[in-house]
Design goal:
single chain, 174 residues, alpha+beta, GMP Synthetase, Chain A, domain 3, 3-stranded mixed sheet, 49% helix, 15% strand, elongated
Length: 174
C-alpha cells in the first residue's frame, strides 16, 4: 500500500517471510566495512574473479585505500603455501580482473600474507538408513567376534560388520 509515494512501513513488517539474501547486506555491512570492503562483492565473487583453483588457496583479507580516497587501494590477500610466488607473478592480471569486476581502479597493488587459508566445511554425506540384517548372519558375526578381547575393538568391528552386511542386503534387495 502506498501513501504519498512512500511504502507503508507497517505493511512491510507485517510478519511476511522475506528471503535471507535480501537482509544479508544490512547485517554484514558493518563487519565487511571494517575490513575495507565497501561491498561484499569482492569476498563473494572471489572465485569468479581469480578462478576456482586460485580461490581455493587464497582469500582477500582487507582492502586499504589511501586516506580520503576510494581508488588505488592495497588488497591484502591471505595465501597458503607456495602459491604466493604464483600469485606474485599473476599480480597484474589479478589486479586487472578485480578492477574490471568493480568497474574502476579500486586496487593498485596486492600485499600477500603467508598464512593458512580457512577451508569451507565440506558438506557431510547424508546417512542412509541401515537396512535390517538377517538374524542368522548377525549371529554369525557375533560368533566371529567372540574371540576379540578388547571391548572397544569388538564394538567397532561389530559396527563395521553390521554396515557391510546391511550394504550386502541392500544389493540383494535392489
Amino acid at each position: 500500500m502506498k501513501r504519498s509515494g512512500k511504502t507503508d512501513k507497517r505493511n512491510e513488517r507485517a510478519g511476511r517471510p522475506r528471503p535471507i539474501a535480501a537482509m544479508l547486506p544490512k547485517v554484514t555491512a558493518k563487519a565487511i566495512g571494517r575490513r575495507g570492503f565497501t561491498q561484499g562483492a569482492l569476498l563473494n565473487g572471489w572465485p569468479a574473479i581469480v578462478g576456482a583453483d586460485l580461490a581455493d588457496v587464497s582469500q582477500p583479507e582487507k582492502l586499504v585505500f589511501p586516506r580520503g580516497e576510494r581508488i588505488g587501494g592495497v588488497l591484502h590477500i591471505r595465501v597458503s603455501g607456495g602459491v604466493a610466488l604464483e600469485l606474485q607473478h599473476l599480480e597484474p592480471l589479478v589486479i586487472e580482473r578485480i578492477n574490471g569486476h568493480f568497474g574502476y581502479g579500486a586496487v593498485a597493488r596486492l600485499r600477500l600474507i603467508h598464512a593458512p587459508v580457512p577451508r569451507a566445511a565440506a558438506p557431510r554425506p547424508s546417512r542412509r538408513p541401515v537396512a535390517a540384517v538377517d538374524p542368522g548372519r548377525k549371529a554369525m558375526l557375533a560368533d566371529m567376534l567372540a574371540g576379540v578381547e578388547d571391548e572397544a575393538l569388538r564394538a567397532a568391528l561389530e559396527r563395521l560388520g553390521t554396515a557391510v552386511l546391511s550394504h550386502e542386503s541392500d544389493r540383494k534387495d535392489g
